[in-house]
């Protein structure tokens, strides 16, 4: 049995080793997503988590799920609750035009933030997010963005070394929510191992 088959058994789906949309839907529901949101996240996850190497090991998946679980409030929020005005004028995020803070606030499971990130990662996945930033909150698109961000920041390598604080800094810019991220990581390791 592989770790993926074991995970399927733990979440109560057929242990066929093919961790696809059905398995991901059940997993996201167990992690707090509504049925509809879980289904949408699963569509993106089934394609992009394997493509970006996140499904190559249980430890990579555990770190990924701990981080996006924290950022999205257990997959309940695909758009930051706050207005985004705190990001106004933040040149380090590429927010150079009036209204950019609100327009390019955190979206998707990893809460991508700032005009520069919307432009860069939108181009990476082939979608003009700078023109239509609101679609980054669509769960399947947001999942693709999360995977592209994860890959671009070389987070698989940090996950392989079990470097939670380094991963958190690359996602958050600091260590905000570290206790919750640690708690989630312990839970995810217990679930996926």
From TrEMBL:
Keywords: Hydrolase. It comes from the Bacteria. One of its GO terms (biological process) is chitin catabolic process. It holds the Pfam family Glyco_hydro_19. The keyword Hydrolase applies. SUPFAM superfamilies: Lysozyme-like. One of its GO terms (molecular function) is chitinase activity. Transmembrane segments: none annotated. Residues 66-151 form the Glycoside hydrolase family 19 catalytic domain. This is Glycoside hydrolase. It comes from Sphingobium psychrophilum.
């Amino acid at each position: 049995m592989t770790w993926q088959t074991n995970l399927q058994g733990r979440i109560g789906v057929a242990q066929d080793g093919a961790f696809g949309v059905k398995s991901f839907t059940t997993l996201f529901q167990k992690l707090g997503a509504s049925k509809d949101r879980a289904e949408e996240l699963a569509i993106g996850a089934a394609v992009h988590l394997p493509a970006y190497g996140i499904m190559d090991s249980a430890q990579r998946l555990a770190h990924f799920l701990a981080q996006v679980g924290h950022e999205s409030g257990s997959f309940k929020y695909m758009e930051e609750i706050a207005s985004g005005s705190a990001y106004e004028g933040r040149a380090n995020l590429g927010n150079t035009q009036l209204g950019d803070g609100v327009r390019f606030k955190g979206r998707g499971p990893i809460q991508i933030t700032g005009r520069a990130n919307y432009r860069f990662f939108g181009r990476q996945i082939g979608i003009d997010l700078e023109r239509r930033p609101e679609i980054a909150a669509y769960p399947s698109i947001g999942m693709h963005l999360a995977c592209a961000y994860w890959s671009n920041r070389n987070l698989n390598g940090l996950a392989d070394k079990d470097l939670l604080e380094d991963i958190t800094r690359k996602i958050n810019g600091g260590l905000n929510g570290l206790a919750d991220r640690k708690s989630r990581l312990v839970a995810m390791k217990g679930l996926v191992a």
